Amino acid sequence: MMNNQQKLVLIGGGHSHAIALRLFGIEPLPNVSITLISEAPDTPYSGMLPGHVAGFYTHAECFINLRSLTEFAQAEFICDRAINLDLENKQVICANSQPVSFDLLSIDIGSTPATISVPGANEYAIAVKPIPKFLQEWHRVIESVTNQPEQPICLGIVGGGAGGVELSLTMQSHLQKISQNTVKIHLFHRDEELMPNHNRWVRRHMQQLLTRRGIHLHLAENVCEVQREFVKCESGLIVEFDYLFWVTQASAPDWPKISGLATNETNFILVNDNLQSVSHSQVFAAGDIATLINNPCPKAGVFAVRQGKPLYDNLRLKLEGKSLKPYQPQKKYLSLIGTGDGSAVASWGQFGWESPLLWYLKDWIDRRFMNQFNRLSSDF
């Protein structure tokens, strides 16, 4: 039994922290105070965001309420943004609040948009992260089309990874339901093939699907300039647009590195197999912000979800002064990509297939995940 109260501070309301908070609520740890620091009172579940863009899910259905979650965990909620760490004095420095002291710290803040070096892009393009700001702009697009359904609309999307492809399909699906006129979408990708992190069947199938859906593909086109109403590529191609969305590779904020935590070249926090900082034993990290030195994982939501329970276990063991347990990420993972029309494409290793049944499976998996936060109970 611990004599003095220990302070556990969680920075960020990502998937891993949401799961850990729920588990701390189910089985509270005596003599431990928990504080969550998050910029927003709710956090989006990445698995349902494409469905939200397509109009299938409401905000409440795909956002986790962090205030009610912290109440369930008997934790304190601070709505603020962490901007630095004082590791020597064990304090979190916030933008608008007093420093928050900790004995044990965990960071799960996701990722931020990669620095966009293309002239005009920061001014005229809409980045998909941070997600709340992106959704605010997307809802403005929907409102504009709803108010003027007879007006043609043209969207540009830069980035042909899974995120850009899924966004193209879901945006088209939603806008076609409310527009009485033409909806044009142009997808720009610097490589010759889409979705480089997926197998050959999935890459070819998605390219054929986009073409059938009338989405204009611009492969091997590197956007080099953005103006208010058009993009220009290195090849000389110029395409006009009404709204431009930027879906390229994300990066990490620089404050963890500035604070003294060990990071890689793109500022992601380096952690060992226990999800523990390789430079500071009192700091843990999970989700997109963390990079395992022995098993680097793709920056995908499935890993943030899978890391939730191992993170909780090791935070608890650390607070109890016990030995930690290594987390082993799976080598293969099932990726379900919604097509915006009630179907989904599965990607598993070298295999892939498409079916409406896969959308029902994805919907069931996602709703099941969210139900654990909508029905907070120690008996759940």
UniProtKB/TrEMBL annotation:
Its cofactor is FAD. It comes from the Bacteria. The keyword Oxidoreductase applies. Pfam families: Pyr_redox_2. SUPFAM superfamilies: FAD/NAD(P)-binding domain. One of its GO terms (biological process) is aerobic electron transport chain. Residues 7-299 form the FAD/NAD(P)-binding domain. GO terms for molecular function: NAD(P)H dehydrogenase (quinone) activity. InterPro entries: FAD/NAD-bd_sf (IPR036188), FAD/NAD-binding_dom (IPR023753), NADH-Q_oxidoreductase (IPR051169), Pyridine_nucleo_diS_OxRdtase_N (IPR017584), Reg_chr_condens (IPR000408). Keywords: FAD, Flavoprotein, Oxidoreductase. PROSITE patterns: RCC1_2. This is FAD-dependent oxidoreductase.
